[in-house]
Structures are given as structure tokens and as C-alpha cells.
Amino acid sequence: MTRADEFRALHDDFLLLPNAWDVASAAALVRAGFPAVGTTSLGVAAGAGLRDGLGLSREATMALAARLAGLPVPVSVDVEGGFGADPGAVRELGHELAALGIAGVNIEDGRENRGLTDPAHHARLVAAMGESGLFVNARTDTHWLDTERAGTLDRVRAYVDAGADGVFVPGMIDGAEIEALVAAAGVPVNLLYQPGRLSVGTARGLGVRRVSTGSLLFRAALGAALETVEAVRDGVPPPREVPTVQQIQGL
């Protein structure tokens, strides 16, 4: 069984997919018992000093993918919009990731400052990526960007027809909309965990097969670092227990 097949099988029931931004965070998630790990494009881009969503972090993404491929669990890589508009280049990207031993990808139709890309064109990118054998999670940003929401199901169907193994609609939280999406998709539906707005239990109860944490863990880590250094500055104990040097070395 390939890593991609192993990853597909995890969607037969339900998968909580945490998103890492470097090797240490991914290894920590594996040690915590998660059966698969994804990456967050925001975390990877920001870690390299780049803006997310502009297709600038291909090099950083591929370098991290090469390191994460050695983990003992399937890894899915967020490739933003595919790092290019040419289906041939996206096909090559997919084959490169598959050759590394990566299990899946997340490819989105949103473009920062430019809204949504044409669904027919994105479907061609999905099809090109699918030739690699990776688990292709086709993301539509109709709800994330709060635009063209009425076309969500049409986009989902187009991407599934193009060969998507799963579909991702971050920002969707309405129960009736989620039920309609699950009924129409015909493939595993992925939603984004949103504190106070969409819980794992609610999503699972509505038939969702995968919930991702997106950039939440990366942002939480930055927040915790700032809280800790502010406590040091203010002469009070750090607000939380932190891993020891030995525990980090052990990863």
C-alpha cells in the first residue's frame, strides 16, 4: 500500500488533520498520536519571510516536503493554487511530490487580491495534479473569501468530475449548507475547524470526513511565544508549561 493509499483509507471514517509548518511541529504531532499530518501554507510561507497565497513559496514548500516525507505517517502538502497557472507545471509538481513519498496535496481556487480563479481552469489543474496518484483535496474559497457562495456546489462538482479525491470548503459553518455539500460531493468533505464556530463533533455529525486545523497551530505557537517572552519581561512565571530541551531533541 502506498502512502497515498494509506491516506485515502484514513478518510473511510473520519480524520482530524493537524497542520504543521516545520519538521519539529510535524514530528511533535506524530508523537502525539495523529495518524497523518498536513502542512499550512501560511506557516510555511511566513517562516520563509513570504506572503501566503501569492505562489511565492514553492521552494520552501518542496524543501519541507522532502524532510517531512521521512515521517512514519502520511503527509499532505498545501500547495496554495499549484504555484502556477500552467497545468503542465502543476502536473510536474505533483509527480515531484509523489516521488518524494508525499501522500496528498491541497490545491485551492482562491487567489489573494484576485478572488476566485475560473472553475474550469482550476478543474484542469486538479486533473493535472491527479495524474501523480496523490490524494488531491480540491479547495474552493467561496466561503473563505465570502464571494460567489451560490456557486460552491457547482465548483465542487467540477473538481470532483476532474478527479478530486476530496473537497475542502474552509469557512463553511452552516449546518444545512454542510449537509447539502456532503450529499452533493460524492467524495470526502473537508472543513476547517473554527473555534467557537465549527467544532469537530458538529462537523463529524453532519457527515464530514475530515477536519483540518489550517494555520491555527502556527498562529497559536506564535501567540504562546509572545505571551512567554512578555512574562519574562514582566517578571512573572510563564503562562504555560513548555517542552524541555531534551523533549525537543527527542523528536
Automatic annotation (TrEMBL):
InterPro entries: ICL/PEPM, Pyrv/PenolPyrv_kinase-like_dom, Pyrv_kinase-like_dom_sf. It comes from the Bacteria. This is Isocitrate lyase/phosphoenolpyruvate mutase family protein. The keyword Lyase applies. Transmembrane segments: none annotated. The keyword Lipid biosynthesis does not apply. The lineage of its organism: Bacteria, Bacillati, Actinomycetota, Actinomycetes, Pseudonocardiales. GO terms for molecular function: lyase activity. It comes from Actinophytocola glycyrrhizae. Keywords: Lyase. CDD domains: ICL_PEPM.
